[in-house]
Amino acid sequence: MKVEVVLPNILLVHPGMMGAAIARELQATGNCVSWIPKGRSRDTIERARAIGLNEWGGHGRPDIVLSVCPPAFAHSVAADYCSMGEIYIDANAVSPDRATAIAAEVRSHGGIYVDGSIIGAPPREGNARTRLYLSGPDAADVAGRLGSSECLELIVLQPPFAASALKMTYAAWTKVSAALLLCTRAAAEVLGVEEALVSEWRHSQPELPAQSEAAAADAKQKGWRWTDEMRQVAATFDDCGLPSEFGTGAARVFQRFPGPSHADVETTSRVQAGSSVAPKKLSGDSH
Q1: What does the alpha-carbon distance between residue 257 and residue 83 come to, in Å, rounded to a whole number?
Q2: What letter does residue 71 receive in the DSSP assignment?
Q3: What are the Cα distances from residue 216, in Å, to 51, 153, 183, 185, 264?
Q4: What does the pLDDT look like over 28-84, one tens digit per residue?
Q5: Where residue 197 sits, what CATH number does that domain have?
Q6: Does residue 83 form part of some domain?
Q7: Contact status, residue 89 vs residue 114, Cβ threshold 8 Å
Q8: Is 5 contained in some domain?
Q9: What is the phi-psi region of residue 89: left when phi exceeds 0, alpha when psi lies from -120 to 50, beta otherwise?
Q10: Who's near 12: CB < 8 A, 6+ residues apart?
């Protein structure tokens, strides 16, 4: 008896915390999402199984390859996987210049490139709706094929690489300002005025104590991923003729937070407890 092989229409690389959450929403709109488990960690395997992702067996060609990975690996992931599908969506936090290079990589293999970026927390009930931006000449068609869900909104921007440009300008504020808050409290600690600073904040800028604590918690979990993203912000500013030091300084802050201790870069980092604000006085700066 001949068994009909049902091909997935989306190949996800890879189901990290964000990627898996995006995949779950795409499944909710009727898409079939698969992934490749070879070489991934136990955490990633369990995450993929929990949402029912199919294991891609290498038969046929998926319609779409969706890349959701740390930005430092975006280009190498594209080189490894772009030839597997007709359309390649790079949804990573990269500069327009790096997105241009990734697009060239995809097109050199005969694929269709769609620029993408994600803004918001991993989509789930109770969170604000996550936005997946897509840009370029094929973005509208791809967005229509994928479909928005209750927790994930697909938004199309027309100019090529506009999705990456938006992500860079958005992250320039959210993450660079977080890095500045971390450094500010660390400097106050070194100078012996941290308690007085926090007290003054509560009086004159009451939102800052909570923001600084949230910045510390986020950096402990995800700072290792943000290092290259901030370098991408720096490159973007430089290309615009603007000071790049904001991005490079933030990258130096976030690189002090330990990353994963194993090879699976998609798994949330296991960070040793340190200062409530940052690694001890953000010391040991490496250049």
Answers
A1: 34
A2: G
A3: 30, 28, 10, 10, 23
A4: 999 999 999 988 888 899 999 999 998 887 777 899 999 999 999 999 999 999 999
A5: 1.10.1040
A6: yes
A7: yes
A8: no
A9: beta
A10: 19, 22, 23, 33, 34, 35, 53, 66, 68
